[in-house]
Amino acid sequence: MKKMLMLMLCLLQSAYGMIAAQDLQRNIAYTDNHVRFTVISDGTIRMEYAPDGQFVDNKSFIAVDRTYPATEYKLKTRGKWIEISTAKMVMRYKKDSGPFGPENLSIASAKGLEPAFSWKPGTTQTANLKGTFRTLDGFDGEMQTQGYVADSKQGEKIKLEDGLLAKDGWTFINDSKSLLFDNDPTWEWVKQRPDNGGQDWYFMAYGHDYKAALKDFTLFAGKVPLPPRYAFGY
After folding, report:
1. CB–CB of 208/218 below 8 Å?
2. Kind and range of the H or E element at 143?
């Protein structure tokens, strides 16, 4: 009986792995010896450059999910350029042109997405909605009234880090250097990425639909558990 249960478990794991691999392949819009573009949703695309041709399918500290729902997109080849378009953006990359840069990669907003944008590697956001701060102790509103927070001085405004969302209508996430999980089925552990100059990027296009952006983020970064009510205090 125990051997039968173990066999069934192995078969289920194998079937799940095959389904996951099929789901991953379904969303890969284009791949060659060095680049791979995966459409996660109509507003999010993963862009990989691998000098050795070995793409990363392991989970990372940022991206813990590698299987995505079916998404509509169009792939076109225009001379040396490939073009991947969705309902929210149009990405263009020059084939066989090496690592991603402003000369060979660009993303523009699709018609109807507001605000319209045109992005290339190196483009800086101008209207990030900011993130969080490690502590609010000693702050009255946005101004520090006490002088015991090491990275702020008394009388200074709070220095918020950049957050996920921006009024620019797009967000760029560079996952090229984060640690990976080793996919051990018994006990997952951390491992280093290959130090080979690879690029692992995510680009999100959402206009002013911030709820859609948050939903798209959870497709690859995982769902965020809601803390229990008692944890919020009064």
Report:
1. no
2. strand 143-144
8 Å CB contact between 119 and 203 = yes
Geometric angle at alpha carbon 176, from 60 and 61, rounded to 5°:
20
pTM score, whole prediction? 0.83
pLDDT at 48: 98
What pLDDT is stored for residue 74 in this prediction? 96
Classify burial at 24, counting beta carbons within 10 Å of its beta carbon; exposed 0-12, middle 13-18, buried 19 or more. middle
CA 70 to chain centre: 17
Which string of b and e fits 113-149 if b means at least 16 CB within 10 Å? beeebebebeeebeebeeeeeeeeeebeeeebeeeeb
Question: Using an 8 Å Cβ cutoff, are 107 and 205 in contact?
Answer: yes
DSSP run (H or E) holding 21 = helix 2-27
Residue 216 is predicted with a pLDDT of 97
